[in-house]
Design goal:
This protein has 13 helices and nine strands. By secondary structure, it is of the alpha/beta class. A five-stranded parallel beta sheet has the order 2-5-8-1-9, sandwiched between helices. The protein has a two-stranded antiparallel ribbon with strand order 3-4. The longest helix has 19 residues. It holds the Pfam family AAA_5. This is MoxR-like ATPase. It comes from Ornithinibacillus halophilus.
Amino acid sequence: MNNDYQLPENLVSILNEKKSKSPEKFTELVREGGYVPPHIDLLIDAISALSMGKNILLKGPTGAGKTKFAETLSYLFQQPMFSVNCSVDLDAESLLGFKTLTYEEEKQMIDFIPGPVINAMKHGTFLYIDEVNMAKPETLPLINGVLDYRRTITNPFTNEIVTAKDSFNVIAAINEGYIGTVPLNEALKNRFVVIEVPYIEGELLKNLIQSNTKLKDETTIDLFVKLSGDLIEAVYQGKLSEDAASIRALLDACDLSNLIPPRRAIQRSIVDKLDEDREREFIKNLAETLFS
């Protein structure tokens, strides 16, 4: 287990300043990475866990920014990141790599093309496993040894024993309760430190819209922030599914509203993605009220 990860000097100094003074400089650096969390302690805790060689599991609703969170951590640590996108079709080749025919001086040979897990281990970089609970339960145990103190795997395609470099780290993300997902088994879950990632709201969301969309009209931005807050509240009350309050979908609606009316932008980006008529009508009524 890696216990002496060397953080970049600028990150060390800003972390120390955060502890002793104020979070302004830290927030500024984080914003350069693309994700500013609702509570800066989320990022401090994630950085602390990764710096001790622990795996972290980002847990939260769809569109809350988990992937952007992982990319920001990669940026802060100055570490490249290999990614795995989980699905029911995920298999050993998708994780570890595959064999293929190649030619060397007109001689046919079998070569192994490493996958994201092997690449991240050998290069000592971050490995990001997205929607980890979409994978079949029998697939992920293949990398249990990668995720615990051993940091080792025997490549079934080459019989090579691969041990990760010290700077190797694993970040995974999970959306719970969605169609196609399965509960993580305890053996896998126990290999992670869990970081809850809530929705971005209020002033942070306003800043995100201003910096990540083409929408510049402040009045319209404020209305979209209000819309998002109402959608999130409806999710908490059980009136809407989490998909309806996706921040990613909201940003799409903000972009579209530069060229088409906001209500139509909301229709295309949010409403038409939902299956239940009750939810669709709820959001349409909310949009009509706000953007009348």
